[in-house]
Design brief:
Elements lengths: L2 E3 L10 E3 L9 H16 L6 H8 L12
Antiparallel strand pairs: 1-2
Length: about 70
């Protein structure tokens, strides 16, 4: 069974949904934080810190797939 965090701010069952359910949204910031922490773990031997990764990510704009169609 796989779960997706849809609202990390909630403490109830509404925080997650089954991945197999029809999801319309998920908590982007929750997964962004996980991504930054994982990237920092891999890149720290090269001198990259979480703040460096956040700075690089800050220069990108969020886009949805709908904007390409």
């Amino acid at each position: 069974m796989s779960y997706v965090v849809v609202d990390d701010a909630k403490d109830s069952r509404e925080r997650v949904m089954l991945a197999s359910e029809g999801l319309s949204e998920y908590d982007v910031w929750f997964y962004r934080e996980l991504l930054v922490r994982a990237a920092a773990s891999v890149l720290s031997p090269l001198g990259w810190r979480e703040s460096d990764i956040e700075e690089k990510l800050g220069s990108y704009t969020d886009s949805s797939l709908a904007s390409f169609g």
